[in-house]
Amino acid sequence: MKPEEITWSKWTRSMEHYLRLKTFPVGLKMLQDKSELAKNPWLRRTPEKLTLCQMISIVRTFDWTVGGTAEDLVPPSCPTILGLAEVPEFVSSGAMRSVVWLDKKEDAAACERVIQRIPYGKYEAFMLAPTAYDPFIPDILLIYANAAQMSLLINAIQFDKFERLVFYSVGETSCSDVIGRCFVDRVPALSIPCYGERRFGHAQDDELAIGLPAEDCARILKNLEILYKKGIRYPISHFGAQTSPLDALAAVYGFSGSKGSQ
Q1: What is the pLDDT of residues 72-113, one digit of tens each?
Q2: How many CB atoms lie within 10 A of CB 48?
Q3: Is 145 in contact with 36 (CB distance < 8 Å)?
Q4: What is the DSSP string of the chain?
């Protein structure tokens, strides 16, 4: 199903039902013309420059729609992740990142080279909103959840189109692993929220973040529904740690066995 054919409010409520999410799924839409910002009656422009992760936190917890241009984001890194600004030389050279995060400037420069960013020059603005209210047709979806919830989401991603999923972490600047990779490569992109997203974006200790291409979201939801009917549900029920699972596994997979068999 194409993104424009999805009723995003229904999709969101279903995802919340199957995964019991604590915060709203967030839709990201990039705009080639910044004048489009004024056409969204719900959009708020923040009075101060904020980090990208702060804006995401506002959306997924306050239930607000926010957006802006490079001027609304804290430089130098945040606008470059969304392709709204070029990477300055003192960032690309490793001079900035080597102050704290990496011991050697050459390692910091290598890190900057692999950070995925939306290419600069195509977009002038962005919008972020809870998809629960059909705010716009998103380019990608951002979901924050714990490891068990993410495990079921990965099962749904793989159910009818298996591939071994590979996820990345550049350490600090985890938004590039989630937003940049998902937007550019059009693949599910999961990562561990970085120090900055925890300090400024209020990501919790038990949370992971994943980006989902909008064009893949209907399929993923359908697969979650199938798995739910098969008994794969959240929260995951616990089996006794000192009780043999052989009979339970045999009932599911159809092999013959008993607690005493090998």
Answers
A1: 999 999 999 999 999 999 999 999 999 999 999 999 999 999
A2: 7
A3: no
A4: --GGGS-HHHHHHHHHHHH--SS--EEEEEESSGGGGGG-TTEE--SS-B-HHHHHHIIIII--EEEE-GGGB-TTHHHHHTTSSPPPHHHHTSTTGGGTT-SSHHHHHHHHHH---PPTTS-SEEEEEEGGG--S--SEEEEEE-HHHHHHHHHHHHTTS---------SS-HHIIIIIHHHHH-S-EEE---HHHHHTS---TT-EEEEEEGGGHHHHHHHHHHHHHTT--SSPPPPPTTS--HHHHHHHH-----TT--
Tokens of 137: 């047709």
Return the bridge partners of 68, or none.
126
Contacts of 49 (CB under 8 A, 6+ apart): 71, 72, 73, 74, 75
Report yes or no: 126 and 139 within 8 Å, Cβ to Cβ: no
Q: What's the whole-model pTM score?
A: 0.95
Sheet strands side by side (includes 65-68): 43-44, 65-68, 125-130, 26-31, 140-145, 208-213, 189-191
89 exposed, middle or buried (CB, 10 Å; 0-12, 13-18, 19+)?
exposed
Side-chain half-sphere of 120: how many Cα atoms within 13 Å? 11
For the record, the structure tokens of 36 come out as: 């489009």
Which residues partner with 125 through β-bridges? 31
110-128: per-residue pLDDT in tens?
Answer: 999 999 999 999 999 999 9
* Domain residue extents for the chain: 3-253
What lies within 8 Å, CB to CB, of 102 at 6+ separation is: 94, 108, 111
